[in-house]
Amino acid sequence: MPALRDVPQFWLSVRPDMTEHTTKVPYEQLPIGALEPTARAMEAGNKANHEPFDWMEGRSWLYYFAKTIRHLFKWYMGEDIDPKTGVPHLGHASADILILLDYTMRNVGTDDRPIQQIKRENDESHNPSGVDTGRTGTP
């Protein structure tokens, strides 16, 4: 499990009515009722496939993206509850999105989005040797 020091210090927020930064996160603005199905989805995932907190180590971003889309599609088609877990599909989607958000903030897992592969290929085609030429932009 990753150490607590690996969690970014992003919990600074600026409120329009305040002129200074505060470390107080406005948790009171979260929809508290939605947290239970999200937590139940995390619990169901742990029971079915994973150990608690192993998601923190990072894995494919597309894995969680695909899971999110599948749960949203099931919900969109009228299936509110996942028959395998008894947890709302939106709770599963919420959990998966939170994991993706965490990955992007901590830069963990594998950013395997197709656009990233295209960017890597473009970078390599402009500089196949990988040597820093000091050039910026397109040739």
- Return the structural class: mainly alpha
Q: Give unreliable regions as ranges.
A: 1-15, 133-139
**Biggest sheet, open or closed, and with what strands and sense?**
none
Gap from first CA to last CA: 44 Å
Shape: globular
The Cα radius of gyration reads 20 Å
**Total helix count?**
4
The count of DSSP E runs of length 2 or more, i.e. the number of strands, is 0
Write down the overall mean pLDDT. 80
Give, in order, the helices and strands: HHHH
Strand content: under 5%
Question: Top keywords for this entry?
Answer:
139 residues, mainly alpha, 4 helices, 46% helix, disordered N terminus
Description:
This protein is mainly α. It has a domain of 91 residues. 46% of the residues lie in helices and 0% in strands. The chain is built from four helices and no strands. Helix 1 packs across helix 3 and helix 2 packs antiparallel against helix 3. The N and C termini lie far apart (44 Å). The N terminus and C terminus are likely disordered.
